Amino acid sequence: MPTFLELSHVHVARGENVVLHDINLSVNTGEHIAILGPNGCGKSTLIKTITCECYPLVSEEGEPQTKVSIFGRERWDLTELKKRLGVVSAELPGRHTLTTTGRDAVLTGFFSSSTLWPNLTVTDEMRARAEEVLQQIDAVPLADKVVGEMSAGQQRRIMIGRALVASSQMLLLDEPSNALDLAAQADLRGLLRKLAQQGTGILLITHHIADIPPEIDRILMMKDGRIIADGPKSELLTAARLSELFKTEVEITQRSGFYHAW
Question: Does residue 66 register a pLDDT over 80?
Answer without folding.
Answer: yes
